[in-house]
Write a structure and sequence with these properties.
By secondary structure, the protein is α+β, with helices and mostly antiparallel strands. The chain is built from eleven helices and six strands. The longest helix is centred in the C-terminal third of the chain and has 24 residues, at 214-237. 38% of the residues are buried.
Length: 274
């Protein structure tokens, strides 16, 4: 289906793995999944396209993995920024659709166990025409993603609907649609989720002039220790640097964010389990 000339050999494949986080087999599998969705988009009766399907997929995955600029990605792949932009717009939503089936049901990951819930703000440009992006908690504009993790730090689910960064976790838990995915699963969260329907266990809150009892303090300490696992899961998800503070920030128009997020969630589980 894909010529070795296009795919390259040896060092080029190792280069792709470093850029995408996918090994040769995974990248080939992803391209095969996309081949049927792309139809004749990469078939030309005349001049061949600047990038064939394999390298186009590697390019778009690289953008999400490394969060480099389109100009920089174009220089790496030997094409113009305009070509990078067209491939990004074409393949980003298709990758999310192609990998939707590999995203597990949280119950499959957790079994009969408990999930830890937390929110994280993933940085974006400060689009002045978009209200409620700036998160005072994080200190930068972004999108609030709601995360569920197992007690040993494995990612169980990501709320599929990104929420503007200014919104509180208590609001984002439901608005992100994560609550819908955890209806049958016991949940533990921090004080930001006190009183939230669908959250079963939170720490005891200290009120002015009223000290917590010894048992309440011990309970909060135990809860704090196990909740470190969800931070591990968030850090692992953010190795896809388009979601990471260290990767700069998401620079594309916000209307493309949901399809990017769907693609990254699919790629995360695809890379981890396929």
């Amino acid at each position: 289906m894909f010529s070795r000339i296009e795919r390259g050999i040896g060092e080029e494949l190792l280069q792709y793995e470093a850029m995408t986080g996918l090994n040769d087999g995974q990248l080939t599998d992803l391209v095969a999944r996309l081949h049927g969705l792309c139809g004749d988009m990469f078939v030309s009766a005349g001049r061949p396209p600047a990038l064939g399907l394999f390298r186009s997929v590697a390019l778009v995955v690289c953008l999400m993995r490394k969060n480099v600029t389109q100009e920089f990605a174009g220089a790496i792949f030997g094409v113009s920024q305009a070509t990078v932009s067209r491939r990004w717009d074409l393949l980003r939503p298709l990758i999310g659709d192609a990998l939707a089936e590999v995203v597990p049901d949280p119950a499959e990951v957790v079994g009969r166990g408990t999930v830890l819930v937390d929110g994280t703000v993933c940085p974006t440009w400060d689009w002045r025409h978009v209200p409620d992006l700036f998160s005072t908690k994080a200190g930068y504009p972004g999108m609030n993603l709601q995360i569920a993790a197992t007690l040993d730090g494995a990612l169980a689910a990501v709320g599929p609907v990104p929420v503007h960064g200014a919104r509180h976790d208590a609001y984002a838990f439901t608005a992100s649609a994560l609550a819908e995915e955890l209806t049958e699963t016991p949940t533990v969260a921090d004080l930001g989720y006190v009183g939230v329907e669908g959250i079963d266990t939170v720490p005891y809150k200290r009120f002015p002039g009223i000290d917590l009892t010894t048992s309440q303090v011990e309970f909060n300490t135990s809860l704090s220790k196990i909740r470190a696992a969800v931070e591990h899961a968030i850090a692992h998800l953010k190795t896809w640097r388009m979601l990471s503070e260290e990767g700069g920030r998401y620079r594309a128009p916000l209307e493309k964010y949901p399809s990017m997020l769907k693609a990254v969630i699919g790629l995360f589980f695809f890379a981890a389990y396929e």
